[in-house]
Design goal:
Elements: H1 2-34, H2 38-47, H3 52-64, H4 72-84, H5 88-100, H6 108-120, H7 124-132
Helix pairs in contact: 1-2, 2-3, 3-4, 4-5, 5-6, 6-7
């Protein structure tokens, strides 16, 4: 019984450690991003690719061309990864790209789907986008 408990405890400790590591990379990435050290920011965000906020920030960097060439298709790819993890800001941004046909084929249906998901997750910009598009 004791070895099983110790194994479970060690597994749990590893999960917590990985979570803190990903979170540290995100925060280190944000610190570098705020200092316009885009190379370090990208490296840190990529080190924590399981974290939705890091995925989102990679999308932002591609969307804005921060330290890399602007690539809206690549931005949409990263926003989708974060959006599928339930990150409302990424859901909103992906909806906006679909609404405008930037980096993806323009699709009102896709835009509405992502705006709805984002809105249900509390994103006020998505709620405004839905109103603007005539959805109540």
């Amino acid at each position: 019984m004791k070895p099983l408990f110790i194994g479970i405890l060690l597994s749990f400790s590893c999960l917590i450690s990985l979570s803190h590591s990903a979170q540290a990379s995100y925060f280190d990435g944000m610190e570098a991003y705020r200092k316009n050290d885009h190379q370090t920011a990208m490296r840190e965000f990529r080190a924590s690719e399981d974290d939705a906020k890091s995925l989102y920030m990679i999308g932002i960097m591609y969307e804005k061309g921060d330290g890399i060439s602007t690539d809206l298709a690549e931005a949409a790819n990263w926003f989708r990864k974060a959006a599928e993890k339930g990150y409302s800001s990424a859901q909103y941004r992906l909806g906006r790209l679909y609404e405008r046909g930037l980096g993806v084929d323009q699709s009102r249906d896709e835009a509405l789907a992502w705006y709805n998901k984002s809105s249900r997750n509390g994103n006020l910009d998505a709620k405004q986008a839905l109103k603007r598009m005539g959805v109540k």
